[in-house]
Structure formats: C-alpha cells, structure tokens
Amino acid sequence: MRLWAAIVMTVALLSPATGQAKKTADFRHTYEQVWGAAVRMIRVDQGYAIKDRDEAVGYFLFDYRDDGRNYPGSVELVRIEDQGGGPIRAVIQIPAMPSYIERMLLDKLRKKLISEFGEPAPPPKKPTDAPSSDHDN
Predict the structure, then answer these.
(1) Is residue 80 part of a domain?
(2) CA–CA separation, 83 vs 102, rounded Å?
(3) DSSP E strands: which ranges in the chain?
(4) Residue 129 lies in a domain
(5) How many domains does the chain have?
(6) What is the pTM of this model?
(7) What is the pLDDT along the chain (137 residues), one digit of tens a residue?
(8) Residue span of the structural domain in which 83 resides
(9) Contacts of 23 (CB under 8 A, 6+ apart)
(10) 87: domain CATH number?
C-alpha cells in the first residue's frame, strides 16, 4: 500500500501542471475598448456562454467548450495606474486546460483590438530632468 501511495505521489509531482498559472497581457487601449472586445470575442466570436459579469469590477466568467465538455474560465481586467497612461492588464484563466489555451485567447483579443480600434496610442513620455540650457551672454 505504501509503495502504491509513493508511486501516485511521485507521478502527481512530476506530471506537468495544466492551466495552473494564469496568463496575462497588457493593452494600451481604453478600458471600455478592452472590455467590449473581450466580451464580444468570448461570446460572439468563440460562442462561449458568459455566466456572470461585472464591468465596474472588471471580470466575467464563461464556459470554455472543448470536445463537447464545458470548463469554467474567467477574464479579469485591471487598470494599471502606476505605469503612466493607465494600460489595461487582461488576465485569462481556464484552470482545467493547458496554459496555451489562455495565451491563444489573449492573442485573439490583441488581434481583435487592433482590427477594431487600430494600434493604440504610444505611452506618454515621462518628463526627463534635462538640464536647462542657460547661455551666458
């Protein structure tokens, strides 16, 4: 019995984890643009059911469909205020699936944002402390 438990534990520790790490991407589009594009991508483009959503808080829950089965997933949008210009971080999680599925959805979201709204504005330049150019006359 102990041998069996040791084998099961070893296999569990050595097998690759699927979907344990959430995938993120930062976008320079507005919050409203990212929110709308993410909802349309999941519901309309992919055809997945959205189970719950709260735009003010910045999340929605959906069912990812694969091989006739549904797997719970989530999209979370976070405003990143400290990076000047307020980019939006999108976090996609589908814990039961391999992480490449989350990355694929983030890539589709990036393409959708660019196709619908164009390239985002470049980040604002931070003022530099340049020495003043006083000339002695």
Answers:
(1) yes
(2) 24
(3) 23-27, 50-54, 59-66, 69-79, 88-93
(4) no
(5) 1
(6) 0.73
(7) 554 433 434 434 344 444 456 899 999 999 999 999 999 999 999 999 999 999 999 999 999 999 999 999 999 999 987 655 568 999 999 999 999 999 999 999 999 999 999 998 777 676 665 555 555 55
(8) 19-117
(9) 91, 92, 93, 99, 102, 103, 106
(10) 3.30.310.80
